[in-house]
Amino acid sequence: MKLAEVQEALREQRIDAWLFCDHHRRDPLAYRVLGLEPGREVTRRWFYLIPSEGEPRGLVHKIEATVLDSLPGEKTAYASWGSLTDGLMRLLHGCNRVAMQYSPRCAVPYVAMVDAGTVEMVRSFGVEIVSSADLIQHFEARWNEEKLSSHLESGRKVDRIRREAFVLASESLRGGSQITEWDLAEFIRGRFAAEGLTTDHGPIVAVDENAANPHYEPACEGSLRIETGCVLLIDMWAKLRRPQSVYYDITWAGYCGKVAPASVQRVFEVVKEARNRAIERVQRAVSSGEPLCGYQVDDAARGYIQEEGFGDYFVHRTGHSIGEEVHGAGANMDNLETHDERRIIPWTCFSIEPGIYLREFGIRSEVNVFCGDGEARVTGEMQEELIFV
What we know:
alpha/beta, Creatine Amidinohydrolase, Chain A, domain 1, six-stranded mixed beta sheet, 9 helices
């Protein structure tokens, strides 16, 4: 735990303290930020308060009194629900404004870990609760050189496998053999394993109307054949199979034939331009030092798609934070599903992936953007033309 850095961040945001709590490991963010590894099952509630000044302090149950022993500060033990209430009141003494893993109206669900009852109890002591979303982004979403290196290495491997997947589809069509969405997904998973990559699920390999479902995943039974005249979308994400690696996440689209129909080509061009406008918005702000929020990046992509008449067919946010989990804890590029007012900060990474999903087919183009110190860049290959399979 970076205690001095946490306290400095609390003072900058004029927050009296950061209150962590958990029961049955429901809040993985708390364990990661605190660097807490109890080494046993956690079956009772614990609380840990880091004040902006002074020594942290904790509240633990008597039968799990050692759960916070690896963290600095005095710990008080409770047993009954009454002693829990009294102990929490004393823990919060002197605090008027505390941060918790809470999000007003659940605007940022990735940090909304605290249950409503605990929020009610803390508020009953006259304490104001503010969201820890910005603090979480600062301590959870920022990368270091090692994480960036793992991302770039993963990117090189994933981009190579993506090229191989489209080649396999092309060779199957030319050779007259039948290959399905499932077959191609299995090929990608096999190549991930061979290259030392891992993923939590996926990939998405989708043909025509299945590509119009942003979260479609093929099953062994019933997946469509990849045939001449169809749109083929591949969305794949993976990271190195080693601790603290971070994900690389991309989507590319192709057409099985020599010339795509005008409707497919037009949708691709609109999606590509929306992607580029979002990238340019980020790069311009980062290079000039302009504060930029996630919702503003979404506006850049979504506004163009709306201008082109496809606004009703762009049904998800423009992008998500990327970290050790493919959907990370940093700012999302979102002014649709949520209004994400978190600022984009240095040493974070996120996807930019606008899409248009019609009844007959869908097109999405996804890249990863890393924001460093004064510069933002796409970290891998970027699709400029439809792939003709």
